[in-house]
User: What shape does this take?
Amino acid sequence: MSTSLSGPGSAEQAPGREPVRRGLPRTSRTARNHAPITATGLVGKVVLLGLVAGIAIWAAFPLVEAEHWIGLGILAATTAGLFYLYLSRRHIPAKYLVPGTLFLIAFQIFPVLYTASTAFTNFGDGHRGSKDDAIVAIQTSSVKQVPGSTEYSLSIATKGDPATGALVFLLSDPKTREVFAGDAGGLRKLDAGQVEASSLTGKITAAEGYTILNIGQASGRSKEITDLVVPTSGGAIRSNGLTRAYEGTAVRAYDAGCDCVKDSETGKTWTADPGVGSFVAADGDRLAQGWKVNVGFENFSRVLTDPNISRPFFGTLLWNFAFAIGSTGLTFLLGMGIALALHSPRMRGTNLYRVLLILPYAMPSFAMLLVWRDMFNTDFGLLNNLFGLDVDWFGGSWSARAAVLLVQLWLGYPYMFLVTTGALQAIPRELTEATSVDGASPWQSFRAVTLPLLLVALSPLLIASFAYNFNNVNAILFTTEGGPFPADNPTNGATDLLITYTYRLAFGAQGAEYGLATTVSIFIFAIVAVVAAISFSRTRKQEEVYS
Amino acid sequence: MRIRTAGVVAVLGLALAASGCGGSDSDKPAAKESAKAAGGKLVIWADDKRTAALKPFAEEFGKENGVTVEVQAVSKDLQTNFVTASQQGSGPDVVVGAHDWIGNMVQNGAIDPVQLGAEQKSGFNETAIKAVTFNGQLYGVPYATENIALIRNTELAPEAPKTIEDLVAAGKKLKAEKKASEILCLQSGQNGDAYHVYPLYTSGGGYLFGTTANGDYDPKDLGVGKPESIAAFQKIAKLGEKGDGALKRSITGENSIATFTGKKCAFLVSGPWAIADAKKANIKYDISPVPGFAGGKEAQPFVGVQAFYVAAKGKNKALAQEFVTNYVTKPELAVALYKAEPRPPALTAAFDQVKGEDPDLAKFSEAGKNGQVLPAIPAMAAIWDPFGKAEAAIIGGADPAKTITAAGKTIAGQIK
Assistant: This one.
C-alpha cells in the first residue's frame, strides 16, 4: 500500500529516509526531528494550514454576527490547536489522530448527541423557538386595524441626518388632507402650509424642518421603522411598508404577572403551561404558537404506550426483519450462484456476462424503483401485460411484499455478484482441487471449503447490507409507500418498515414532530445495534475456526 | 513517503472538518448579507418557475426605489426550508407559496399579517382573499388561484356530462365500442388522492371541517367518519373497481394525464397544469365543472391560492411590506406570473386582461366558482394521508362504513 500512496514528488526523498526508519527504530524521534524539510512538504503544509485559517475566518463572521461566543471560542481554540500541532515537530501520533477525531466529533458524535437530546423535547412544528419568540409571534399576529380608522399615506422623515437622525412619521389623511407628524411621543397636527404634498395621493413630499427619506434610505433603517409605534387614543399608528400607515391595536397581549396571554376583544386568557410549551385556555383551547420545552421521557413513554404506535409495532418489526434478511439473503444467494457459475473454468464469454450482470447496479436506483413501481401497475404495468396476468400487485399484502423483495433482488444481486466474484478469486483453487482428489462431490467441496471461506470474507458485508436494508426507506417509499393499508388502519401498511412507519407518525400528522421521530429512531438504532453486535461476535468465532 | 502523503490527506481532512464544525451557522451567507447592504436589500424566495417570472419585476422594483432585490429559487421543500431558515434568522424577507402553508407558518411564527386597504382588497377575487385569511387576519397577498375541472376529449365525448352517472354511461359506451380503455381518468393510486376525489365527496354530501361563526374552518368539527361521509363514500364505492370501474387504483398521478393524452380515456379530472400536455398531444378538448351525483349536492373542487408572504423574522420587513402590499397588487406582475405558469390571476383586473387571450382560463375559473377554499388550518395536514388511503381502500372494494370510520378516528387522534 505504501508505494501506491506515495506521490511522484516524494520518490526522490525515499532513499534517505527509509533506512533511517527501518534501521533505527528506537531513535526514530530524533531522526524525525532532524528529517529534512522538502519544498513540496512545506508548500503543502502552508497551503493546507492557510486553508484551515481561511475557513476559520469565514466561519467566524456569522458566529460574531449571531453573538455566538461559545461557538467562536471553540472555533478559535480548534484552529489554534491545529496550527500548534502541525507547526511543531512534536506530538507525532496526535498528527494522525486529530483529523479522524475531529471528523468523528463533527459527523458522528455531535449528530448522535443532538438526536438524543432532541428526543427529550417537544421540538417540532409549533414548538420550534423560545417562549419569547412565541409571545412576539402571538402579539404581532394579533394586530388588527382599528375599525373605521384612517389609512394614512406615509412619508418617513427626520430632523437630523437621513442615516442616523431620529425618525418621524409624516402622515397625511388622503381624504381630508390633514397632515400630522408622529413619533414615539405621540401624534401632532401640522399646519398644512408647512408641507408640500402630492396632489394625487396626498403623500407628503416636503416639510419644513424635516428631511424626507427616499425609499432606499428608508429601507436601510427598516427595523427602526417597523419598531416605531405612534401611540394614539384608539391604539397605535404603525407603518405598513414605507408609504402607508394604519391605526392598529394588538388584540392579544402577554401579561408577565399572570404569565398569560389576554385577548382584549373576547376577554379570554391563555395561561402558559411550561409542561407542554403552549398557552392553554381554561377550556383546553391552546394557541398555535408554542415553544420548545423539555418533556423528559414523554416521547419514550408515548412510543411504548400509545396503542397507535405499539399495537402494530411487533408485526412491523417482524416484516422489517423478514425484509432485511430476505433482501440480503436472496441477493446473496443469486449473486453467489451467478458468481460461482461464472467462476467455473469451463464457462466461456464470462466478461460479456459480467458486464451484462453489472448493468442493474450501474443504473440509478431511484429511477429504477420508480420504473419498477409502474411495471407493477395492475392495468398499465409491464408485468401484467407481458404475462397476461391480472394481479393487483400492490393491492394485496403478500403480493406487495413479494413485489418489493423482487425489486430488491433485482437491484441488489449485482453487488453481491461483484463481491463474491472478488472473494472467490482469493480462494486458492488448490483447495477445491484437493477435495476432488479426496473424492468429494462438487456440492461437498462447496459446503465444506468454498462457502465457509466465502463467509469469512463476506460476513461483514452481509451484516452491513442487513443494517442498510433494515432502514431502506427508498425501497418502500418509492414503490408501495408502505401499502397496502388495511381498511381499518391507515397508519400501518403491510410493507411498512419501522422507519417508513415512523416517518408517517412523525411527519404525517399536524406538522413535523422531530422529538417523537428522534425517539423512535433511537429505538431502531438499539435494535440494529443489538443485531449487528450479535452477528459480529458470531463472525469472530467463525474467523477463529477457519483462520 | 507514506507519512507525508498521509499527512497531506490528514490536513486536508482537518480543513474539511473545520469547515464542518464552524460552517453550520452560515449555511446561507447570501441571506446574511442583506442586513449589511447599505441601501437596503430585499430577499425573496420562490420556486424555480416563479423565480424566473419574478426576476424582471424585482429588478424594476429595486431600480425604482434604489434598493437591491434578490430573488432566490428554492426548488425543493420551500415551506420547510423557509420555516427552518426563519427560525435560525437566515430566512428571506418575502416568500411565495400556496395558501395552505399559512397554518403551519403561523404556528411557527414565520410570517406576519399583512394590512391591505379596503380598496386594495376589493380588487381581488373574493375566494382568494378568503383563502389567505386565517384566524380573522390576512396573512398574504394572493396572485393566482387554481382548481380542478373535468377535461374531456371532444372527439370522443362531444357533450359535457351533467352528472357523474351520465359520464359513466358515456364512458362505458366508449369502452364497449373499443374507442377508449378507461371510463374516467381520476387519479387515485394505491394510497388514494384526497384532492382529486374531493368534488365527488362533497357531491355525496361529505365535508371535512365544519365552519365557526366567523367562517373559519373548525378543526373540532371533523366531518370524516360522520354519517354524511359514509353516505358519500358509499356512492363513491359504486364507481369503484367492484362497481362501475370508473375509479381505479391503477390510475395514478403519474399516468392519468398520459392516459388521457393517449386517448385511452375520454374524461380527465385535473387542473390547468394538464392543459400543456393536452395541447402538445393535439387533443381537442373542452373544460367543464366536475359533475356531481344525480340528485346529489354540488360537486365542489378545492380552490388553492398562491400568495406572497412577509417573513416575520426578515431583515427588512418595512421594505418587504412595501413590496408585497403596494407592488404585488399591481396587475402587470400578476399577468407576468400568469404567463410563467397559466393559473387564473387572483387580481380581477389581471384576470380580465388575460381572459380574452385564453378561453381555458375562464372555463377553469367557472369550474372553481362553487369551489371550497382548501383549509389552511394545521389540522388539514392530518387529513390527506388517512383520507386518501380510505378512498383507495373503498375504491378497491373495502366496506365504506368501516373504512371511513377508522380514517376519522385516526385523523381525530392526530389533531391536537
